[in-house]
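YM 10:42: VNX1 protein sequence, as discussed on the call
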Amino acid sequence: DVPKVIEPQGDSSVPRRGSLCDQHCAAINNVQGDLGCHLHCPRVPPGGLAVGWAGHGALGGSDTLYQLHISAVAVSPAICCQQHSDEVCESCVVKTTLTAENAVEANKLSNNYKFGFKKWKSHVTARPWEDRSEIVKELYSDLSVIRGSGGSTVTCGNVLYLLLFGWWLSVLYVLMAAMMFVTVVGAPHGRLCWHLAGYFLWPFGKVIQEPEVPTPRRALGACEAGTGESSALLGGPVPRHWCPRCWAGARSWRCAGTVVWLCLGYPVLALAHGLVCITAWLLIVLIPVAKLSARTATRVLLLPPERVFIRHLRMMEVPLEGRVILCCYRALNPYYYKYAVAGINVFAVNLLPLVLVTLVLGYVDNRNRLTSSPVKFTLALLSIMPLSYYIGMAIASISAQSNFAVGAVVNATFGSITELTFYITALIKGSREGNRCYAEIVKSALTGTLVGCVLFIPGLCMVIGGIRHQEQRFNSRSAGVSSALLFLSVGGVFAPTLFSKVYGKLICGECHNVTQNPLGHFLCHNCHFDLVSRDHASPVSHRPLVYTVSLLLPAAYLIGLFFTLKTHSHIYDIHISDCHMPGHHHSAVVHWSRWRALVILLLSTLCMSACADLATEHISPILTNSTISQYFIGVTVLAMVPELPEIVNGIQFALQNNLSLSIEIGNCIAVQVCMLQIPILVLFTIFYPTNFTLVFSDLHVYASMFSVVLMNYIFMDGKCDYFQGTVLVMVYFILLAVYFFAPSPSGC
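YM 10:58: structure's back
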């Protein structure tokens, strides 16, 4: 059922212009952004969405530009061609073409439009250098390229370098120069340190070069002839004593100077540059300074002093002969948030040591001698963010390099592993301590994830995307599938709660007679509906209903997968066709192979379990000593922190005017919470009894129901702007205020 483009008949090799169908097609608002857009009229059902990627060759071919086509019906056939029934146009379609460098990247893009697959923005393969923008090329450029005059070097970033690093590095080099001069044998290195002191005070607009090494035969001939060769670097003939044969007498003297330098001078300067490198790398925008310090410590300081030359670019009349080692123009670049190392974003790279610090402090300092429990809880919670990124990257890499079945299994298995590890460890700890508060915290986190993914993530993406694009459109039919599953899942999850309200038994902790009359009014605290029937006083139990719901919800999830990806695949119609594009010869160089991604996925999951265990271990003081409601802690911190990578992906999609994926990110997470995570927790309680029951408070029920209804109302027309996104965000913050002022749940 692949949509087919009708070829023109006869001599009409060129499409006719001016027909009513073409006029309607031209009137359709085209998709904005940086995506190439084309118009065509395939045979697709009205209101459908066709997604396809075109390419040629096997996976990882090297002679094709792959294109992902997303087609959404914008005008019905009756309106388009009501007076031209003899024409081949059945519906006018806006076709957006997304280009992919290779088959793996095209597979990743197509997976983004599949229900149940993780939506991932970052590339899983290395992008060709010629396809990158000039801004990105500058990020990865080497500090050994001499560019033309780019204006004054006095900028805010360069002044910041002078205040943070330049002045004390210069002072340190002056002290090292004095020490080397005192040793006498280290005088050459002392002169080098003296010149480097001026360089590192203000390295911008200066160049450090290494002269070309003459071959031994040429050097020997020059020494014997007695007339030195001309060198543009030195500006004159090469002296006779530069010949290696003439240096034999001074070899021992040079060796002594080198030993003194490596023992006294180099370690101190290498340590200083290492400190500068780490600090600048963590600040991200100062990564050029980190590159400068790293190359100095590993290259410049290890060269012989006579082979290091420092020149000012303005003083150079002709290009110098030799190899450029360092040439820096700017210390600060605000675009380094796009920088990636082996496909990993620089933020995730910088947060990875935080995971190691958290694990060491959490399992070594058991008695809290070094840090307190709130600090350890905060570190464990922050460590979940980079681990969530690595898990998402691994899932996207495996899915892009595998077939549909493997990708579906990996997404269903590890798609919710971040949240489940925390929930299960919290329930285990609550069961061991006999504290019902942990079960209430888990329920609050589940509700917070549901409400946040339904209101906050789409609303925030609408606001940020609406700032750049006046109006954004999305496929309302595909969003309707997720909305229908969301309605079903929310109704199934809260069915045991409604059952408890009707047939439950109200149990209160303590009651006081207000009127001093035995038949008067009583004021009760810590009341809840009990259907567990431990004493068999209640004739009804909610467990059969809970187990039934826990079986039906995953079955509904599987039916949704079968519906969207098999029987009604025209909603996400994916097809492959040949599309030869001359001039593109790119092979698929994946950042992570399947085995590497699998190992990283397993290690990240293991570290995630350890961090979740530490978070639940040190959350007790926060729950007992904090004046904030436990509802608020669960709904905000525990629910939304693990979803930060997904929020970033949604914002990036919205900025590219691809709001459909931004909405699907929130909907898919919400559906997985209700249809996968909650049934897994119920299944876990069968084998490991805990205090978790599928009975939520009234506040959770009302907040979730209202959020789902509001989301479906706003997404009804298939278009939105920043005002509608503001409404969703404001409603979310209103619900947070309700949770903030609500009393703590019973048992906490």
